[in-house]
Amino acid sequence: MTPTFSLPNMFEIIIQQYKNIPNWQIGLELIVFIFGILSVYFAKKENILVYPTGIIATVLSIYIMYNAKYFADMSINIYYSVMSIYGWYQWKKITNGTTLSISRTNIKEKSIGVILFIITAIVCVFIYQFFDYKLQINNYLDIFTTSLFFTAMWYMARKKIENWTLWIIGDAICVYIFFDRHLYIIAIQYIIFTILALSAYLEWKKYLAKKIYNK
């Protein structure tokens, strides 16, 4: 039977989850928590610090997931780290005397996004099948959100506003996933991510509207 949700119950579960975890690991997870939120905040502000803060969070996550033997999650964070380096380069690159600016995806970029989403989903299903794991509803949600996030990372590297739409959808689903798994600290982090992503979308949309108006 699933425990009834309540704040005292949530705090009790959080305490139990971290009762036997070494202080150094708790410290690493806290750093990941803080730098993950900072990264989204800097992305919202179109600040290049989105990438160094994001890399700190993802590299530490790789180490944490490796120790916990969550190799799929570790692989995802390796991808995030690589895409962060790519995005850092793209945001800093100067073309025709200007840096990359916020824009919307064109037909080609939308098509690439769809292809990337589908390929990611197929790879995720293959990984589950390789380990002979019977897929449950939550696993399909994991596959869906992972595919969204893979695509969102590429769109963010190109400063496409659509990246925020994908983050909003994926983050909101992750709130449900982690509350359902009683991983409340992670769920709270994704609530913050969802709020920041929604705020970022509105801010980037305002920038695009102003850009069109000034033409």
Topology:
Elements (H helix, E strand, L loop, with lengths): L6 H11 L5 H22 L5 H18 L3 H22 L1 E2 L2 E2 L7 H24 L6 H21 L4 H19 L3 H30 L2
Helix pairs in contact: 2-3, 2-8, 3-4, 4-6, 5-6, 6-7, 7-8
Please supply descriptive tags for the structure shown above.
mainly alpha; 215 residues
Provide a descriptive summary of the structure in words.
With 215 residues, the chain is an all-alpha fold. The chain has one domain (17-213). It has eight helices and two strands; from the N terminus they run H-H-H-H-E-E-H-H-H-H. Strands 1-2 form a two-stranded antiparallel sheet. Helix 4 runs parallel beside helix 6 (137-157) and helix 6 runs antiparallel to helix 7. The longest helix is centred in the last third of the chain and has 30 residues, at 184-213. The model has no long low-confidence stretch (mean pLDDT 86).
- List the helices and strands in order: HHHHEEHHHH
Mean pLDDT: 86
Helix content: over 70%
Query: Which regions contain 5 or more consecutive residues with pLDDT less than 50?
Result: none
Shape descriptor: globular
> For this entry, what is the oligomeric state of its chains?
single chain
Number of strands: 2
Approximately what portion of the residues adopt beta-strand conformation? under 5%
Our count of helices gives 8
Largest sheet: 2 strands, antiparallel
Intertermini distance: 60 Å
Rg is 18 Å
Number of structurally distinct domains: 1
Spatial arrangement of strands, main beta sheet:
1-2
**Class per helix and strand makeup:** mainly alpha
